[in-house]
Structures are given as structure tokens and as C-alpha cells.
# Entry
Amino acid sequence: MVRGFDVGSLARGTVFTLDSGEGPVRFEAHRPAHPCAWMDVAVAPGAFKALRGKGGMRCVPLDDGVLRVGKAVLAIVGA
# Structure
């Protein structure tokens, strides 16, 4: 999960890095991740409605690495 960056604005195929202090880890953006009605069962009633429009982007890691909870730097590769 990333806060403070509109991951939904990434074009498919965009490569970006996240660095939480252990070195950058590259990711490739693939497709939007939309919440589904199953969230009402898995999380709690009303979760689907609360999360609509906030699904984000499915991404694939391109490197091994370490990401830690907390502040991180996100950079678009080639930008």
C-alpha cells in the first residue's frame, strides 16, 4: 500500500521504484485493482462501498529487495 501518490495515474507498463532505506526495488504497473463485493464478506459489511474508487494498481515486482513499513521514496524510472 502506498499513500500520497496516485498509483491509479500510472500507465500500464510504467516502471517505478520504491526505496524504504534498503535500496530501490523496481515494479511494473499492470492493471487497475478494483475492490469487489466479496470485500463485504472478507473485511466487514460496507467495505466494498467504502473502498470503491480506491483500489489502486496491480504491480509486479521486477527485483528482489527489502521494503519496510514507513516512509519510502517512489520514483518513476526514466522520468
